[in-house]
Design goal:
The relative contact order is 0.14. A hairpin with a 6-residue loop joins β2 and β3. Helices cover 32% and strands 25% of the residues. The two termini are 32 Å apart.
Length: 439
Amino acid sequence: MSTTTSGKNGTWRNWGGNVTARPAREVMPASVDELAAAVRRAAEDGLKVKAVGTGHSFTSIAATDGVLIRPQLLTGIRKIDRDTMTVTVEAGTPLKRLNMALLREGLSLTNMGDIMEQTVSGATSTGTHGTGRDSGSIAAQIKGLELVTADGSVLSCSEKENPEVFAAARIGLGALGVVTSITFAVEPVFLLTAREEPMPFDKVLADFDELWAENEHFEFYWFPHTGNTNTKRNNRSAGPSQPVGQVSGWIEDEFLSNGVFQVAQWVGRAVPATIPTIAQISSKALSARTYTDVPYKVFTSPRRVRFVEMEYAVPRAAVTEVLRELKAMVERSGLRVSFPVEVRTAPADDIALSTASGRDSAYVAVHMAKGTAYQGYFTAAERIFTAHEGRPHWGKVHTRDAEYFAQVYPRFGEFTAVRDRLDPGRLFQNDYLRRVLGA
């Protein structure tokens, strides 16, 4: 087990650069036993414990001045069970590595978010999701998990084993213990055909229910200061595989979506008055395209431009009204918004603190480039989201607290009761959890 003490250079920063922490020590356990020992030692030393993945959360959910657990050595697949069609993977495994390993075995997750740099435990603990008519978040695909609890014991849970913990721990916020392994449902690898095309904002909203119903996975980006969107429809395909060409893929995904977009952010930050014009040009830069590939190569895309993000889940039936209100707010506010707004959906699930818990949901994500003032935009957007009983993504910027969550999550008390039982002394507490879950 590797242990380090934070000193002058011991500051931890998240990917977005908006959260920092100075842990007393960092631990990289090489086994579950070593992790359990680190938890017990922290308790003996009177230090709090938090685990951190790749730092892609924009909240301080993983920040601590106590012991920071880094799971980089807890990686790889433990077991593939083709009878139950499940795979058990170590908690520190990056989603990219998991997907590549599954592909070699002829297997795939059913759905994914749009990046794959996260660890499996970090992604699921914060409720990471993609878009889907019938398939939910990554956490909704969990069939079992293992975690080290506050007393240093190892607890396994599933629908049959410790089911009340399972109902909560699939999206546990790091509040119930340190996840050591996750068992996912998988299926034989399949192909998805992606159809990307520009579409007017008003048409997307007018046809939203139809676009959602007719496609397994539908999402779109609206470019503020314009009436333009770029839509994406992913549906299963019998093939053949027709991946994005190497040259055209570089032009669309690297040169335009990352390189030119980064320059646009720099220009917009230096001269905010240019942002509406840049938005008009950007919204027309990407052309329509269709391609067919294995799921994770269709679901995900490279994100090299750093940003800060707020995302709320609202009832799916309310999303078009929310977007009209958001567009009207931007137009009358004088704000200059250089990042597209992302819209996705998810079906209702049965996870206590899932943003889709008990209701079909739509996600509206607002972004600002790293280093720009985002507070005014996010505050105004959050006012709209909360008016529709929105639920913020646990890993993205928001200002809500336990009192609010008790109102919008019917099973909030169920989660906190499990937390009281597993961590009565609040070993896994930090300022963020104190705010969102209560003392």
